[in-house]
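Researcher: Re-running this chain for the archive, since the previous output was lost when a drive failed. Same request as before.
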Amino acid sequence: MNLRGGSPISMAEPQPRVPVATEARPVAESAWSPLREPLFRTLWTASVISYVGTWMQNMGTGWLMASLTASPMMVGLVQAATTLPVFLVILPAGALADMVDRRRFLLLSQAWMVAAAAALGILTVFGMVTPWSLVLLTFALGLGAVMNDPAWQAITPETVSSQRLASAVALNSAGYNAARAVGPALGGLVIAAAGSGFAFLLNAASFFGVIIFLYRWKRVPHEVPEPAKRLRQALVAGFRYARGTPTVRVVLVRTAVFSLFASVIWALLPLVARPHGPVGYGLMLGFFGLGALAGAVALPALRRAFSCDALVGTGTILFALVTFAVAQLAAFGWLCAVLFFGGMCWIAIIATLNVTAQVMCPAWIRARTLSLYLLALQGGMAAGSTLWGAVAARMGIPAAFMLAALGMVLGLAAAARYRLPAYEMEMG
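Model: Regenerated structure tokens:
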């Protein structure tokens, strides 16, 4: 696909050219149509393999820390080490991705993650890992992942034709959710058979598909990167653009509000699943992932029938009902069915917000605005997980789910003035 990038613009006086918001409906395309394009198909396949490795790693680090120490603080630290880099470096990562060649930047971040995962795997295999080295290397891996994210999101429009961008974003999200279901289960089998160290080494190997793709990709830059100015200037320009562009503000507000309340599912589902054991928990995640895949298949038809705002609004109300139902149901079969439907709603909301974020800005500042979107999404999830854990500890799990569901509906009402625009897949 050809990016429609603006020419370099003064960092002090940004004059953004924004996407054209229209009510035109997208061309009828199958949900799988992006996979007909070799460039996207290759990258998607490699990224799903990498996602599976990442979830194997996440499962393995938690299990290994619990094996090394009984300290709840250390177990909590290894989880914090994964999310803390989001708050520390995602905004500078977005600025850097706009200032340098994104392909080389991604190669560097992927190599960093290979090194961190391989180092942890080797230390674990040889019995040399300690709780603090596990925390440090988990933090290093999370740092690489966060540095990678804005540039990774920003190249999506370069790998698929414009009329298939929305389906491509939905497929990326579905692949991630499918890996979320498969990775922990596969990781459990690998750890049981060969130990955590081998799972970490498999994760290191899983990055090579993406690295080979990036190395062989003959990227044709369709925009001139920002001049090599100071990082602070680039960050200021990004904030100024977000503040002065209504579409960006709408996406950020809607994303932050939804993720804050929707995070209750990821924070407390392990406790809901506890009576059904680890296999039951894995199956619940699997049904959610399958629902996300089904939602990705249905999304092109939904986008032809509903506006972006109606799709996100309806999906949020339905996801709130799913959230309420999860805490009320005890039967395993019903829980799986509800989570399957929740996965469909999740992908409709997240993919629509994501594709709006992809097209809401010109190429010269895309990675910076995407870094703000990712901060709203992941920061909301991290803050919400802490909030709902505290609410559940004080008021009980059903009350936490009920309040989160109510918050989603009230948040949607409060955000009525922040309406998502319809979008045309052509940058001005």
